[in-house]
Specification:
- This protein has 8 helices and 21 strands.
- With 397 residues, it is an alpha+beta fold.
- The strands form 5 sheets. It has a 6-stranded antiparallel beta sheet, with no helix packed on it. It has a 5-stranded parallel beta sheet with strand order 2-1-3-4-5, sandwiched between helices.
- The longest helix is centred in the first third of the chain and has 20 residues.
- It starts with a strand and ends with a strand.
Amino acid sequence: MKVLITGAKGFVGKNLVASLEAIRDGKDKVRRIDRLENPDELVIYEYDVENTEEDLDRFCADCDFVFNLAGVNRPKEQSEFMAGNFGFASQLLACLKKHKNRAPVILSSSAQASLEGRYAGSEYGKSKRAGEELFFAYARETGSKVLVYRFPNLYGKWCRPNYNSAIATFCHNVANDMPIQVNDPSVPMDIVHIDDLIDEMIRALNGRETRAGDYCMVPVHDETTLGFLADTIKSFPEMRASLGVPDFSSPLVAKLYGTWLTYLPPEKFAYDLKMNVDPRGSFTEILRTPDRGQVSVNISKPGITKGNHWHHSKNEKFVVVGGTGLIRLRKIGKDETGKDYPIVEFAVSGDHIRVVEMIPGYTHSIINLSDSDDLVTIMWANECFDPKKPDTYFEEV
């Protein structure tokens, strides 16, 4: 299949090209489905502002499917809306008709094309509406399949800040320690993440587009407010200091966090943690969550024993990822004969990754058996450490 993508270097185009390349190259096996026969032979024609009319002519003569993603969002003059949106659409369709190419065509329109409510009188909306009418007329004239999508607010990686996405602007500014401005936090926002949009584009390419009357739509979207978006994005940098993570049970928050990360400057890709160091080694908290406990890394020097304590209700998971050690547990108190309960031992090593549970009511310890190498253990506790209620009691195993 030969696919023409206009606006290939724009936000949506760049994501679509990357996704199709992954299908073609076998890196995305999930999307290698149905109508994409011989995906190894998928040809992608990328058309953007630096291409020539000759390129467009050649692509239109040969393509099997067209994604028309080209358009103007922020021109210097209002008149450029009609020239950049309606004008190019006319050129594209004329070129397809010239070559009698009846390939299916997708038009990326906008919710503003409704010209209703706050979009009434929008010059951008008028140009998009004109483009829609042109495509519908083209379908009636030629019998070609035309798919018109009215996209709401889009966001995700590679979206330009200070251009056509409030989310991109918020993420960029917050990631770069710049202020953001929200005049009316109650403004409703209907938003679509780029991954959900690309999923729909792939479905459309396979002939399984999502219809809504005369139009097509991205079925996965979120309705929220401008204030929620701003407040959520502003909270992300603070989590590094508190070792917190967002509430990933919310798909919207998870997508916003992933988007925010893509706007971080390279020097912010890494950040330091507080290492609690003593002669025995170190203990460093990595993550703290209100409902899923905390994750830490513990380093024990050669020959060192750590632990020798028990908990009433706190429970932990120990995973040794480096070195060789021994984990020992013993139920506190005495058995029915008045003797100590037997010790349970687990040999642990970074060569055999497994979890050892620390059971409430069992005193436990971890011993580095090496004479030269550190013992590195990832530790999870079901609750974050609270110095006012440590639930930790010394007792040798």
